[in-house]
């Protein structure tokens, strides 16, 4: 038996969840989507149908429902025309347009179980087709209702991250910082933040991953904004780097925020990332809060991107 070669042991800190090799693009987009494209899959994947219907945009979802409704009525209108409109009691004329419109609107009334009564089947075959359409209508509307409920009840994180990160003076040294805010008026509790630095190793061409130590990685309450700080000390992988050196290692700061939403009573997640082009050196974040006339604290969401530039 041929001896198997030993597994390659990777240095501590390497993360195989993203892989050691990558192209020139960032792993994660600012909106949290992952830049991974799956190839070799069939065009129609029924196991992803529910996920696609739940996660697609609202306008696209409603358009798809409307299209399905129209196609179903057109299909059954064709079936009723094939059966023959003489098997229906109807007030319309004998022309094709009159017969088609009567068949289409009878299908709509049957599919939705409205049944106004001015068109009704008068034969066993027409009644059987109408009964089948009624059954399919009940099942399809139950499915559509379930999808609508799933879309509305699914917890969505509405966390807005600053468009830029900064490297600014911090407690006698410097720190890598970004901030985020909850756009909703609900309360997030037990909020946790994690930042992973993905950088290029010039010697091997592989990527190395470092979990950055944060000044604070968890807060119990999140009523305002949170500026996440990674102090750049001697133990930091950013130690000794300036803007030019940072660009050379092609970094990506991958951010994951986890929180408990007391409205949905579920844990929510939000992701984003920053590259070297997103880092502003020497700037600081502008204040986001002010005191109102009645003494209440006001949080200006639009100032999450506000920077105070050096000089």
In whole angstroms, how far apart are the ends? 71 Å
- Supply the CATH superfamily name of the largest domain: G protein-activated inward rectifier potassium channel 1
When the domains are counted, the total is 2
Structural class, by secondary structure, is alpha+beta
Number of helices, where a helix is a run of at least 4 consecutive DSSP H or I residues? 5
Instruction: Give a short account of the largest sheet.
Output: 5 strands, mixed
The proportion of residues in beta strands is 25-35%
- At CATH level 3, the topology of the largest domain is Immunoglobulin-like
Summary keywords:
Immunoglobulin-like, alpha+beta, Helix Hairpins, 311 residues, five-stranded antiparallel sheet
Description:
There is one protein chain. The protein has 311 residues and is α+β, with helices and mostly antiparallel strands. The chain folds into two domains: 46-153, Helix Hairpins; 159-308, G protein-activated inward rectifier potassium channel 1 (Immunoglobulin-like, Sandwich), CATH 2.60.40. It has five helices and 16 strands. The strands form five sheets. Strands 3, 4, 5, 9 and 12 form a five-stranded mixed sheet that branches. A hairpin with a 4-residue loop joins strand 10 (252-261) and strand 11. Helix 1 crosses helix 4, helix 2 (58-83) packs across helix 3 and helix 2 (58-83) packs antiparallel against helix 4 (124-153). It is elongated and about 90 Å long. The termini are far apart. Mean pLDDT is 84; it is low at 4-10 and 12-16.
């Amino acid at each position: 038996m041929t001896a198997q070669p030993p597994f390659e042991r990777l240095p501590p800190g390497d993360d195989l969840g993203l892989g050691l090799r990558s192209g020139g693009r960032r792993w994660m987009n600012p909106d949290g989507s992952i830049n991974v494209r799956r190839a070799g899959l069939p065009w129609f994947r029924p196991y992803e149908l529910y996920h696609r219907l739940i996660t697609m945009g609202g306008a696209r979802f409603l358009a798809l429902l409307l299209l399905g409704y129209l196609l179903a009525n057109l299909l059954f209108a064709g079936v009723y025309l094939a059966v023959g409109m003489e098997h229906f009691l109807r007030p319309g004329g004998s022309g094709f347009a009159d017969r088609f419109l009567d068949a289409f609107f009878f299908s709509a009334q049957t599919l939705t179980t409205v049944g106004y009564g001015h068109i009704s089947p008068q034969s066993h075959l027409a009644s059987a087709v109408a009964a089948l359409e009624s059954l399919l209508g009940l099942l399809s509307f139950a499915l559509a209702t379930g999808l609508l409920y799933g879309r509305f009840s699914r917890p969505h994180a509405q966390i807005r991250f600053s468009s830029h990160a900064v490297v600014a003076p911090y407690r006698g040294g410097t720190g890598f910082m970004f901030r985020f805010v909850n756009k909703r008026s609900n309360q997030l509790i037990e909020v946790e933040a994690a930042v992973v630095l993905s950088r290029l190793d010039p010697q091997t061409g592989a990527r190395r991953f470092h979990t950055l130590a944060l000044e604070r990685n968890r807060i119990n309450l999140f009523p305002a904004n949170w500026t996440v700080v990674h102090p750049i000390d001697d133990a930091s992988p950013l130690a000794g780097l300036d803007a030019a050196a940072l660009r050379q290692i092609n970094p990506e700061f991958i951010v994951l925020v986890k929180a408990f939403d007391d409205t949905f009573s579920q844990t929510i997640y939000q992701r984003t990332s920053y590259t070297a082009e997103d880092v502003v050196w020497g700037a600081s974040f502008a204040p986001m809060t002010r005191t109102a006339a009645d003494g209440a604290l006001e949080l200006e969401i639009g100032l999450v991107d506000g920077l105070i530039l050096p000089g």
